[in-house]
Task: inverse folding
């Protein structure tokens, strides 16, 4: 079944608000077999809403989802547009007016005059309750298309879809239509090369997508034909992507690392220079991380590297702070200071300044010291300060993962 | 001048990626007098791209911006669609092929086979360089409409617009159409109350929007009538919002704090418990932060609080780690260990577990010790683990700002 989404609002076109409703509708409806074919945004303008909606309802979509333009501050333009488009009538709903007034009174607020218009509803539409806000939703079944008119406020729209629209109008049982494999440590085009054979093999029944991110490349397998074995195909891709594949769906590198540390009963501590605390932040994003994460030292200045982590002044002078030697000393230092099983360190040049004749912006070293080995890896991520730091963190977490998987 | 935006990608329609390109184009182009009238998203499908683009180029838009469908993993469908639509030809650009190969060699990677297609370009189009990625942009002037074909990766698209498209094809001098005032330490409805009189006063010529975020509430003033004094109105609002207002546009709390630390020649170090490194991360997001940020200690476990920051076992036992007393000892501890002018600390219960009979999830203490005063603030942010941590960091930075502004 196919669908079209129309989102309404000047604030969306002018970019003051990012339209997240469309994406949410996409992922939420997919398991019900509803595939969005097109998404359109227009401004707060009745004629634009009519023009676009006219084209859509004459296009044989099964579903047409509209969000926005319902509130009093938008002059209720969406209702007026559909009144004209479907030759309907706006009528006063006394019952809802009283209910609305009571809702305001309950929070000790006199209902603002502008909210009164929200009790005006389209006569031929089915009303969809709004459990959070004051703008009602509306449903038409017109010309073979289910039309849903909803408020633009994400929380109100989501509640309407989940609590009212799916149970009443969609009904079908959701089915897993896609699986995401998470990878780290490999770039998109290399990963694509690795699985191109498998993609060809399954191209008739599945669609594939690469989703690159600084935290790694996600690979999505989308089932296009009913009855195919998503689970089996998934495993085949996962194996082929080893050792880069580390999880599925919403798994995170820090979450997987955490699980493995718990399994192996190992603790970890970090000495962060260029990442400035971001590794600690990422590790402690996971609830329960106190079980394996002791903490760390943000040794941003050389002074702190020496005073808090016993880095040798001599090594620092000879090699500079961004060097293999210092990465190793930092990892050893934090491990000794905290008695952690694993010591991890970062040192690098995130830029925009800080480069030297021999050391470019983007250079980074990651040190990992464990009970049975010490390693230092050298990287070069010259993609700006923000990405440099994120990629150093991702590489650090991946280095720990690979060690723990051995 | 009006414009239309077409974004391409199954991942957008299926909601795996939120389309932020459209919003960015909206705000970025507005100062150049370019108003986006419509935004459309279609999937990775040549015929859909052709159909929509055909309608758009026959609609007298001044500008038509297309993003996505250019990479090798998208089968370069956008190029093929415009080849068909504009009856053009795909030709091999040897020069770019060599350049691309060299770029890969520079990072010691053999160019993957699938990247080769990126050297195929549309014959009649003007090439727009890609300074970040490998997919070239293209420009046509067709039927009165400037058509820009750009990659979907946000960083690549943005660079193309700023560095190449605006200087070469748009040229007009940007005029300020809106101003954003940044605030921290006040909730949206309270801020609205504070400025409701001013909003009424200027409602004829300006539009206003509150944009709440865990890093504070932004307030946007949008000029609706030419020739109005945005600068004067801005200052009036800014004053009215004191002491919560701290900056404009893309100013960040950490950036403002950094500036003031430099001005006053003060250094800072942090002792983070519940925030796990996020304060360090936020401070070092600002390039040049090494001038005032020495570093810190992530004292996530009580063991590290004692061993690295000399927290008294007695205080810990009597008050618990999440207490006014420990916040103060942590801030004093890091200040003494690092000789920083300012010591900042956090301790709290981010949840979901960790609450006790007397201490709920959401509780947090922030300690600030400076050469002339010591303060501890108590907060309760019960909005989930992620928001708790972010809001503790924002409050910490705001606390430093208020101290430095005195």
Result:
């Amino acid at each position: 079944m196919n669908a079209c989404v129309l989102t309404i609002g000047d604030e969306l076109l002018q970019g003051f608000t990012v339209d997240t409703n469309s994406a949410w509708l996409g992922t939420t409806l997919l398991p019900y077999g509803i595939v969005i074919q097109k998404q359109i945004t227009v401004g707060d303008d009745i004629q634009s809403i009519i023009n676009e909606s006219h084209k859509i309802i004459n296009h044989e979509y099964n579903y047409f989802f509209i969000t926005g333009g319902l509130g009093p501050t938008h002059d209720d333009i969406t209702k007026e547009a559909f009144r004209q488009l479907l030759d309907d009538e706006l009528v006063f709903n006394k019952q809802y007016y009283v209910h609305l007034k009571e809702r305001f009174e309950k929070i000790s607020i006199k209902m603002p005059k502008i909210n009164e218009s929200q009790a005006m509803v389209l006569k031929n539409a089915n009303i969809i309750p709004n459990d959070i806000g004051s703008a009602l939703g509306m449903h038409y079944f017109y010309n073979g298309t289910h039309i849903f008119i909803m408020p633009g406020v994400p929380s109100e729209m989501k509640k309407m879809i989940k609590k009212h629209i799916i149970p009443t109008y969609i009904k079908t049982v959701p089915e897993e239509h896609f699986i995401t494999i998470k990878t780290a440590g490999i770039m998109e085009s290399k990963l694509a090369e690795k699985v191109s054979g498998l993609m060809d093999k399954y191209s008739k029944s599945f669609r594939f997508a690469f989703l690159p991110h600084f935290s790694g490349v996600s690979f999505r397998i989308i089932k296009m034909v009913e009855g195919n074995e998503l689970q089996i195909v998934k495993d085949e891709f996962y194996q082929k992507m080893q050792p880069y594949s580390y999880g599925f769906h919403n798994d995170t590198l820090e979450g997987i690392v955490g699980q493995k540390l718990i399994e192996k009963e190992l603790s970890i501590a970090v000495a962060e220079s260029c990442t400035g605390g971001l590794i600690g932040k990422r590790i402690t994003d996971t609830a329960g991380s106190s079980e394996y994460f002791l903490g760390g030292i943000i040794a941003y200045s050389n002074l702190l590297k020496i005073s808090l982590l016993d880095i040798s002044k001599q090594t620092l002078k000879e090699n500079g702070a961004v060097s293999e030697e210092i990465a190793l000393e930092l990892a050893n230092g934090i491990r000794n200071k905290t008695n952690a099983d694993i010591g991890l360190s970062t040192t690098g040049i995130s830029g925009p300044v800080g480069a030297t004749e021999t050391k470019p912006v983007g250079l980074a070293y990651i040190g990992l010291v464990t009970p049975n080995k010490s390693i230092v890896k050298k990287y070069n991520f010259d993609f700006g300060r923000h990405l440099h730091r994120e990629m150093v963190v991702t590489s650090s977490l991946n280095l720990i993962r690979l060690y723990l998987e051995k």
Summary: Chain A has three domains: 2-170, 178-248, 253-405. The first strand of chain A starts at residue 2 and ends at 8.
